[in-house]
Amino acid sequence: MVALPGSQIRRPRRPGTEVRRPRRPSAREAGTALLFVLPFLLLFAIFRFGPAIAGVILGFTDYTIGGETSWTGLENFRRLVDDPTFWSALRVTVIFTALSVPLSMLASLGMALLTRRAFRGAKLFRSIFFLPVVTSLILAGVVFTWVFADGGPWSRAMGALGLPAGSWLADSALVVPALVLVSVWSRFGYGMLILLARLQDVPAELEEAALTDGASAWQRFRFVTLPQLRPALFFVAIIETTVSFQVFDMIYVMTGGGPVRSSYSLVYLLYDQGFKYFDLGYASAVGVALFVMTIVVALIQRLTLGREE
Amino acid sequence: MRVRKSLSAVAVALVAALAATGCGGSGSGDSDKNTVTMWIYPVIVDEVKHRAHWDETVKAFQSANPDIVVKTEIFPWANRDQALATAIAGNKGPDVVYLIPDQLPKYARNIEPVDEYLDDATKSDYHENVMTSVSIDGKMMGAPILTSAATPICNKKVFAAVGETTYPANWNDLLTMAPKFKAKGYDIAAYPGDAKQTLNQTFYPLLWSAGGDVFSPDGKSVAFNSDAGKKALTLVKQLVDGGYVDKSLITNLPSIEQTRIGQNKVACVWHAPVAEVEPLWGKENIQAVPHFTDVKQVGYGTVGSLSMLKGAKNKEAAGKWIAFATNAENTKKYDLASNFFSPRKSTGTLYAGDPVLNVQEQQVVTSTVGPLHEKARDVQGVLFPEIQAALLGKKSVEQALDDAAKASAPLLD
Fold first, then answer.
1. B119: buried, middle or exposed (CB in 10 Å: 19+, 13-18, 0-12)?
2. pLDDT tens, residue by residue, A178-208
3. Crossing angle, helix A280-304 and helix A226-245, to 10 degrees?
4. Hey, are the CB atoms on B88 and A66 less than 8 Å from each other?
């Protein structure tokens, strides 16, 4: 048996090449580069960073539209802790993320591996798999509401398999899995594209060497391909987790958070509090909680999946 | 080196241009203090007709008030609260805006009462329930321009297919008639329990007619878990459990043409407006009936009014415009063009010759707009999932209403 631990594999250097340290840019060059980056930084600061900071500050106030705003300290966060709707929304969001991220990554990886080789129609398949990413989730939500409806195609398929044939969207236990399936369908193309780009970059010599050493297909994947994919997988995991934590639009269209709040996510709670009840201080507190959660999970992922990068 | 200098110059120019566009003034051009801006929504569905109405009204107003410029903008219904709330927060709101009572409590702090801009004759011309619907703490939050009465409407085609010749007059009639309709493959009614459907048009009419209310008289607690509330929810549950309504609508409300309502399989509905079912049923097949009765006869109806925002640049001009746009003559014109009803007594009956609208018009006085409570929407938010739980058999009627009452308590502290 040939052992091919991923950490020992290094990309072969071309003969005659030597490692050259990049030259440090001069102050003038750095200044010029900074000037080119400045428009983006400015836009980022104005339209992303600024509102985010303002959102955090609002979380510590009782801001409502047109009302007197006063500093309330941790009151909104205390209210969060005591709010059963927050805990229910958190539970829904965590379950949704825990199901959709691994499934989406598996689907992305599987499709990337399937379409990495050059075969007739490979580009067409890649385009087809990417199509859901550019399809409006609102539109997809309307279509999938019909797919999962009682008597719809999914319900009939389940019935044919001898499984319960009712509407998954009307079932408290099955509504989140149904939403996860739609989410995976709509997202896997993006992950596939990222992983495919990385796969194209894996030197064929490595796999050929492993093949010569008698490694099986699984061993080649496990000890050659997968370690090379690690940075891309880390990136996809972070993106998928962030997107899953922010799930809202398809829930809004497909279930309205129901039945009986079984699919009511944190962003749905934020939306209701902010734009339906105009309690913007509390809505901001929900946003801060969501931000902290996302950061914590991203750090955990960094410590596990992305620790070597 | 020269190239680098040129690139630096380009980058600096780009930054400067972006800064100028990002940080510059809004350039709205509405700095004129005698300009009144108004936001309205597609009350008249035909945009050309709607535009024409306001252009004509503005023209007439300006001939009498040449020093005041009025600018009206028609926005879509969708996400109107988000747009308005954001505009108000950014101090970019209009001077005058069309609001319904459901919105009034949430915007109350931003609204300038219009009492002083309307004369006594005008105020006494409004129906009593209309005045109540737009008043908060005794002040008029808007000048009414239209009303509606969401009475139950029945599908004559369905009644003919079932061989039923009488229409229901109260909630219990629905239960009594339901088995006959079910036997022929029809639903007697429809109950949409989705979060997007306001309870004002679904559960509350049953609650009100059973003698109950959403809030206690002092507004400090909820009252929907009373005996009246339990009676109302039990009736809906009987309809669901008996298979007399489409159960899927409890959790999801697709567009109406995809429902059994749109497929002419439902006998009567009380949440859908005539305009929505007309293309699907045909106007000749619509039978409007008076609000259903139980302890009392009552149903939902809205009141559309023009409200002045506190940020109005010239309140005097905005007040003059509101009074003019909602005077009896303009109100009548607007209501006839939009198929709504008049909030005024002096305009008389507008739809005497229309078999459907005439029935609904008679019901304006027995209609209510729902609770004018700051937390009315928030309470709906905690009540609707509990109603779903009861209708799906996850909780008893009593448990569901009590749980909703318990969840509402912190909102009213």
1. exposed
2. 999 999 999 999 999 999 999 988 888 888 8
3. 170
4. yes
Does residue B10 lie within any of the structural domains? no
The whole-number average pLDDT for the span A277-296 is 92
Q: Which of B110, B258, B385 sits opposite A65 (nearest CB)?
A: B110
Q: B109: which chain A residues are within 8 Å (Cβ-Cβ)? A: 64-67
**pLDDT at position A16 over 80:** no
Instruction: Provide the domain count of chain B.
Output: 2
- CATH code of the domain in which B72 resides: 3.40.190.10
Within-domain flag for B18 = no
CB distance B250–A170 less than 8 Å?
Answer: yes
Which long-range contacts does A289-293 make (Cβ < 8 Å, 24+ apart)? A289/A77, A289/A80, A289/A86, A290/A245, A290/A246, A290/A266, A291/A52, A291/A56, A293/A245
pLDDT of A286: 96
Answer whether residue B276 is part of any domain.
yes
Q: Identify which has the larger pLDDT, A13 or B202.
A: B202
A242 band by pLDDT with thresholds 50, 70 and 90: very high
Tokens linked to B98: 């069309």
What pLDDT shows up at residue A303?
A: 83
Nearest-by-CA chain A residue for B388 = A260
Least confident segment among A89-98, A166-175, B46-55: A166-175
Asked whether the beta carbons of residue A66 and residue B19 sit closer than 8 angstroms, the reply is no
pLDDT of A121 strictly over 90: no
Check CB contact of B263 with chain A, cutoff 8 Å. Answer: no
Q: What is the number of other CB atoms lying within 10 angstroms of the CB of residue B152?
A: 27
Residues B278 and B174 in one domain: yes
B250 and A CB contact within 8 Å: yes
Same domain, B285 and B406: yes
Q: What is the pLDDT of residue A20?
A: 60
B196 close to A (CB below 8 A): yes
Contact: A256, B81; criterion CB under 8 Å: no
Contact B36, B71 (CB under 8 A): yes
In a domain, B25, yes or no: no
Same domain, B168 and B218: yes
- Cβ atoms of A211 and A155 closer than 8 Å: no
Select from B4, B247, B253 the Cβ nearest to the Cβ of A32: B4
Ordered DSSP codes for B344-412: BSTT--S-TT-HHHHHHHHTGGGEE-----TTHHHHHHHHHHHHHHHHTTSS-HHHHHHHHHHHHHHHH
Do residues B45 and B57 share a domain? yes
Domain residues for the domain of B40 are 35-149+301-368
**pLDDT averages per 10-residue partition of chain B, 413 residues:** 45 41 40 84 94 96 94 92 88 95 91 96 95 94 96 97 95 96 97 90 96 95 97 97 94 86 96 92 96 94 96 95 97 96 95 94 93 92 95 96 94 86
Give the span between the Cα atoms of A217 and A219, in whole angstroms. 5
Phi, psi (degrees; rounded to nearest 5) at B28:
-70, -25
Q: Which is it for the CA torsion B198, B200, B206, B207, positive or negative?
A: positive
Q: Is the Cα torsion angle A176, A181, A187, A191 positive or negative in sign?
A: positive
DSSP A222: I
Q: Which of A36, A85, A260 sits opposite B11 (nearest CB)?
A: A36
If you average pLDDT over each of A2-16, A161-175, B29-43, which comes out highest?
A: A161-175
Q: For testing the chain A interface, which of B252, B308, B391 should be mutated: the one with the most A CBs within 10 Å?
A: B252
Outline where DSSP puts E strands in B28-157: 35-40, 69-74, 96-99, 111-112, 135-136, 139-140, 143-147, 153-155
Entry pTM: 0.82
Ordered domains of chain A (ranges, CATH): 84-304 (1.10.3720.10)
Please, which pLDDT band fits residue A306 given cuts at 50, 70 and 90? low
Cβ(B87)–Cβ(B299) under 8 Å? no
